[in-house]
Amino acid sequence: MRPPSLRQIEAFRAVVEVGTVSRAAELLRISQPAVSKLLINLEEDIDLKLFDRESGRLVLTDRGMRLYEEIDRIFSGVDQIARAVEAARREERGRLEVGVMPALGGKFIAEVVSHFLEQHPTVHVRIHTRSSQFLIEWLHTQQLDVGIVTTAPEHPHLAVEQLDDEPFCCILPIGHAKAHHQVLTPELMKDECFVAFQPDSYTRRRIETVLESEGVTLDRLIEATAATTVCELVAAGLGIALVHPLMLEQVSDRVIARPFLPKISSGFLICRPQSVRNRELIRAFSQAARDVAQNKLGQLIPR
Fold first, then answer.
1. CA-based angle 280:146:244, to the nearest 5?
2. Which of 90, 108, 130 is the last residue of a domain?
3. Which domain holds residue 190?
4. What is the mean pLDDT of residues 170-186?
């Protein structure tokens, strides 16, 4: 009995995983006869029957399966080493773990990353799209380097800055009876169907606080959990809503946006741990986010 060669093991593993000698040959970039010969030599060298030949097909024997499981375990360890090497290489090039709330998780964050990578093309960027509550927790535990959130509690280990200072606007379906008003107020929203965020969201609570202070309650409601859904419901003619202008991009040509008074501050924040390993990259990413926000706001906000 002789120890198997690495090439024999590769051929055996490939046949098991892809199912046929022909596909294994394509994977290994060798001929079918070469794969068949490697398998035959492997069985002879280790003195074990690994396959039964049934109607031209190869079927693993019990011994073949046990050998494959052991080989797969070893190769998985090699794959883990390869991933560790790649992670070390990424660390050398720079790595940024970014969190973003779903409302800004589409075109906005894509443009921010593109803008950032123009200046830092070798940095490995990973985007996590989750609610602000999760992102804040991950920032606390430094699983994220930077996050764009709607609210951040005061915490000695977190640094927070405003993404922009643009207030919420009111959006209405095209052709809505109140679209002729240049500014919308709580009084004008009475008796309107209102498309609102879910009751436990920070944005919903801020909007309701302002409306209730003006004596307006939201009686006719459609509720949605995502900003994109809120905007699409308005575009479909189902009601009006108060949203941040950055949420409008996908419906900007299908709704009418008007300033709203009293002003409701945006609340979009850039948040990072106070102690970070890549401060310069975070600073560059934060600046890219502010630049993209200002550019988009110039196109989207009602004037």
1. 120
2. 90
3. 169-259
4. 92
Q: How far apart are CA 88 and CA 284, in angstroms?
A: 22
Position 153 pLDDT exceeds 80: no
In a domain, 1, yes or no: no
Per-residue buried b or exposed e for 243-258, using 16+ beta carbons within 10 Å of the residue's own CB: bbbbbbbebbebbbbb
Mention every residue, 6+ apart, whose C-beta is less than 8 A from residue 294: 164
Number of separate helices (H) and strands (E) present in the chain: 9, 12
Closest CA to 106 of 123, 127, 121: 127
What's the total number of domains in the chain? 3
Mean pLDDT of all residues belonging to the chain: 86
pLDDT band at 122 (very low <50, low <70, confident <90, very high): confident
Residue range 213-260, pLDDT digits in tens: 888 888 788 999 888 899 999 999 999 999 988 888 888 889 999 999
Characterize the bridge pairing of strands 124-129 and 95-100. Answer: parallel
